[in-house]
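re: ur question from earlier - yeah i can do the single chain one, its not a big deal. heres the input i used so u can compare w yours
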Amino acid sequence: MSVVLNGLAASAEEPYTIWFPASGHAVEAAFRNNRETMERVTQELRALKARGVDTVYVHLTPMSSPEGTDELNRELSRRRGAAVGRWLSTLTGCPVTVVDVKLSNVSWDAVQGKALKDFRRCDLVIIAAAEEAGSPLPGVAAEYAPAPVGKTENPVEEVVRMEPEVPVVPAAPVASDASVASEQWSTSWYLKTNFLTYPLNLTANLAVEVEIGRHFSISVPFYYSSLDWFKNTIKFRMSGLQPEVRYWFRRDFTGFFAGAHATFGWYNVAVGGRYRYQDHGGNSPVFGGGINGGYRLMLGNHSRWALEFSLGAGYLPFYYDTFFNVENGALAESGLQNHYWGLDHAAVTLSFRFGKRRGTHE
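and the output i got, formated as tokens:
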């Protein structure tokens, strides 16, 4: 029996699906439900052979999820199609005649609401009739041919064999190529500002957040204020940082997150009372930390703009001096200490994302 691959003609038949791991292009029986699918394909080919069918046509549609460039995604799809073609050749022991292979370019629009892993696959439909076959493509049949015995470094795992008497040749590997990185993670970064600090204490702020994995990011906000609040007895002058590590429950970095933060800064604060409070000697910044959580809401489909809502609590040890709260007020007490436990972070943040356009991840 010979197998002819045809990716041009549509078919009403339900396709078989061979799944691939991220960036993978080798047929693995142990991955997802590939073993069951491979057994079903084997049974169908046996049935066709028993009916005396000599040539089988296969509609082949390999695809990849859209994280990488179009060129790299197309190359990865091609390699997946080649791997499935080679696997089919092991079931018959015959070279595969290539008519065409339909490479499917998946866009981010198609991914919306679906898991990326569901696009890492190759669909195939077995057709016994020959009326939709085309002319073989010159010079490409070798890509789908079985490998010589003993020349395969990474054979298909646990290939389901057609029949005991049919000589089965191990599947050839698709050569590893570090340049095929179409499904590797594409890092994004964000520029953000917290709206709450402007009306509450006239503090300007800017933050940068960078993704460091499929679920983690680091956010570093900087706060600065040098203004009195309408009069010199009310002020919240400060400069500081509150770096934060976040864990995101979704892989597209939207929705809920939980995190841990550190707080570091200098302060000069008065709230209209008798005293003004300043870090000791002007060189004893507060240093503490805590935990926080929040939610990121995208402002529209495929939008780069988002709103974040977050709260945090922690511990802050203060080492400070007090001054009489008048203009050029004298030192009242020096070297005081206080320990604060409680709310230390509140934010309603507007953010803009830089990086490759992204859909919904699993």
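Helices lie at 34-50, 70-92, 108-111, 197-201. not sure if urs matches, ping me
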